[in-house]
Amino acid sequence: ALANWRSNVEQVGWPVALVTSAVLGLTVVLVRTLAKRARDEARLRLSDLVLANVSNGVTIADANAPDFPLLYVNPAFERITGYDAGQAIGRNARFLHCDDAAQEGLDIIRVALAEGIPATVKLRNIRADGVPFWNQVSLTPVRNKVGVITHWVGVQRDITKEEEARAALAAAYEDVAHYSADLERFSFVLAHHLQEPARQMRLQAQVLLQRLEEGGTPADREPSERIVEASARLIGLLRDVQTYLAVERLPAEGLPGSPNQALAVAVEWYKERIPGGAVRVDKDDLPKVGMTQKRLDDLFEILVENAVQFRHPERPLHLKVTAEPDGKFWRFRFADNGIGIDSCFFERIFIPLERLQPRTEHTGTGIGLAVARRIVEASHGRIWVESDGVRGSAFLFTLPKAA
Ligand SMILES: Cc1cc2nc3c(=O)[nH]c(=O)nc-3n(C[C@H](O)[C@H](O)[C@H](O)COP(=O)(O)O)c2cc1C
User: What is the ipTM of this complex?
Assistant: First the structure.
C-alpha cells in the first residue's frame, strides 16, 4: 500500500509542483502589480495634489487630435482665467485671446508647435469676466518612447502686476528723462545769461578800484577787491557749468582723436602757469581713440589742470601716461606724484561742485572731474581713480578704440 501511495504521489507530483510554481509566480506578479498600482496610485494622488495646489495654471493638450484640444486644466488655471474645466476642456486654448491673434508671442507659439520645440511667451489674454490680463505661457512637448509628440503641457502665470509695474517704471523713467532734459536746457541758458551780469559786476568793481587807487585807503579798497574776486569766481563757475552741460550736446564720437596731441597741448598750457614751470612727462606713444579731438583736448586739459592743482608742494610735478588694450577700448592710466586722494573721496571727486578742500587752499570750481566723467561716459567708457593718499593719484579711464 505504501509503494502504491508513493507511486501515486510520484505520478501527480510533477503536475502539482508545476501548478504550485505557476500559482506562486502569478501571485508574485499580482503582488508586484498591486504594489506597482498602489505606487502608481500614490504617485497619481501626489501629482493631483501638486497640480491642485500649485499657483501656476497647468494645461495638457492632445497633440494627436485636430487643433490641439485641451484634455486637462488644473484649479489654478480656473482661478487665473475664470473659466472652469468644463468650459475649457475639448477646446483649443486660443479662446483665451479672443480675436487678438496678431501677437508676437503667438507667432512664437505657432513655430514651436510646428517644430515640436518648447517656448515661453507673454500673451495678452482675456478672463471669462472680460478683464484683460498678461499671461506668461510656457509650452513643452511630451514625447512617447519612440519620440513622437503625444501631448503638449502648458504652464500659465498671471504676470499682470509685474507688467503694470514695468510699464509704470518705464513711464517714470521717460518722465524723469524729459524733466531732466528740460532742466539741463534751462540751466544751460541760465548759466549763459548770468555770465553777462557777472562780467559787468567785475568790470564796474575794477573801475571803482581804479578810482580808489587815487585817493582811497586800503580799507576803502577791500570791498571792491572782494567783488572783483567773487565775480571772477562766479564767471569761472558759470563757464564750468556750461561746459558740463554742453558735453551731452556735442557729438561724442567722430574722427580718431590723438591723445598724444591732447596731452602735449594741455601740458604746454599749464607749464606756463606753474610757478617755475617744471613738469616732467613720461608717456607711451598713446593710441588714437574714437572720439573728437575737441573732447579729448578737454579731457586731458582737465586731468592736467587737476594734477597741477593738487601737485605736491615739495615735489616737481611728474606725470606718467600709459595705455593698454581692453577689449573694444583702450585703458589709459594718467598718474601724477601729487598729494594723492583719500579713498573716501574716490567717488565724490567726480560729483559736480563737491569741494574736498577749502577754497583758500585750492583754486578751481570743483566741476572739472565731473566734466571728465561726462566726456568719458558719453563715449561709453569708464573713469575712476586710484591713490594711496600719499604718493599721488592715478586716473584710469577707457576710451573706444579708433575705428
Ligand atoms: C497646452 C497649450 C496651452 C496653451 N495656452 C494658451 C493660453 O493660455 N493662452 C493663449 O492665448 N494661448 C494658449 N495656447 C496657444 C493656442 O492654443 C494656439 O496654439 C495659438 O493661438 C496659436 O495658434 P492659432 O494661430 O491656430 O490660434 C496654448 C497652446 C497649448 C498647446
Answer: 0.98
